[in-house]
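Extended Data, panel c. Modelled sequence:
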Amino acid sequence: MALSLKKKRGASVLIKNMDKKKILLIVEDEVSLAKLLQQEFFKEGFDVLVAYDGVVGLSLALENKPDIILLDLLLPKMDGLSLLRELRKDPWGLDVPVIILSNLSDAEKISEAASKEVFDYLVKADWKLEDVIKKVKDKLGM
């Protein structure tokens, strides 16, 4: 299996074998957290796309059609809820599972995310990496 790291302005991609692996998109502006998630999910057998802002995140989602998306709400250029609204306008984007990872515990934001059919909402301070991996795998039936 070939390993490649592709860089695009505002994004990075770890790929083993795009035709057989589940594809995960992480949209997270905290670079250290995004890289940690990227490395751990790659070790778990995922092909991982990472965007550090909402505009690049939406572009990567629509171009690559990942199996699941981990999405922060507070992002530069386009916030996570705006990205989610745009994503849900696309026929493919209507059904893609999204897990929100955010520092916000604001009930209004959680409610709006839920109205966009978000699979789960995790407050960053409350979760462990293993929990996030388990939620993603459970949602994908792995």
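Confidence is low (pLDDT under 50) at residues 1-7. This feature is highlighted in the accompanying rendering.
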